[in-house]
Amino acid sequence: GILVFREFLRTEFSDENIEFWLICEDFRNSVGSKKLQTRAQKIFNEFVAAQAKREVNLDSSTRLQLEKDMDSVTKNTFDQSQKRIQALMEKDSYSRFLRSELYSATLELSREQEALRNQPNRLGLDLRALRFGPVSFRKTTESTEYSRDSAVPGLLPQVKTPRKIAGSSAQHETGSHSAPSSPKQQRAGLY
């Protein structure tokens, strides 16, 4: 969603708009008011002030009003400016984003992932619960299975299987090895 849109804006060298919008959102939802004035001034200097490093395209009346509001900062100080930038992105950047190759590719990937989740598989596993994204394998407390963010039971249990090593007795190794497929493999220790 927003990460893909942000990446698109970077390719157009206009990511300051989404960055400003996100910072305004964070500013409005911030808890403490102790450093509100300091934070507001930093945002103003970075995005609004004339010749700011990442200056956003605000009309002069909105900019002047914001300059006045900087004297008595509240959590809503940037609301009007944020709305203007949002309207600008919706009218300009977002419509181009919806026609972009990046959006098309992301949409196609999302559809493919959804189809995979809903597709029956030969192992009889229900893949609809799987979430795609970063994998965090943590050992669950109830078993020796490993799971994806603890939302889905682990699909690959850790199994201790005997493995013959030349010149020694059978030893146990932890791994996801399968059992030998033939007696010949079993005798040769090739599993």
How would you characterize the overall build of this protein?
This protein has 191 residues and is mainly α. It folds into two domains: 2-101, Orthogonal Bundle (Regulator of G-protein Signalling 4, domain 2), CATH 1.10.167; 137-191, no CATH class. Helix content is 48%, strand content 8%. The protein contains seven helices and four strands, in the order H-H-H-H-H-H-E-E-E-E-H. It has helices spanning 2-11, 16-29, 36-48, 60-69, 79-98, 101-118, 183-188; strands spanning 137-139, 146-148, 159-163, 171-175. The strands form two sheets. It has a two-stranded antiparallel ribbon with strand order 1-2. Strands 3-4 form a two-stranded antiparallel ribbon. A hairpin with a 6-residue loop joins strand 1 (137-139) and strand 2. The longest helix has 20 residues, at 79-98. The radius of gyration is 28 Å and the shape is elongated. Mean pLDDT is 72; it is low at 132-180 and 184-191.
Given the C-alpha coordinates, what overall shape results? elongated
Biggest β-sheet: strands ordered side by side in the sheet: 1-2
CATH topology of the largest domain: Regulator of G-protein Signalling 4, domain 2
Give the integer mean of the pLDDT values.
72
Q: Could you list the spans in which at least 5 consecutive residues all have pLDDT below 50?
A: 132-180, 184-191
CATH superfamily name of the largest domain? Regulator of G-protein Signalling 4, domain 2
Helix content: 40-55%
Q: What does the radius of gyration come to?
A: 28 Å
* Number of structural domains: 2
Distance between the termini: 45 Å
Q: Characterize the largest beta sheet: strand count, sense, and whether it forms a barrel.
A: 2 strands, antiparallel
Supply the helix-strand structural class: mainly alpha
What's the β-strand tally? 4
Succession of helices and strands: HHHHHHEEEEH
* Percent strand: 5-15%
Question: How many H/I helices?
Answer: 7
CATH class label of the largest domain: Mainly Alpha
Task: Indicate the CATH architecture of the largest domain.
Answer: Orthogonal Bundle
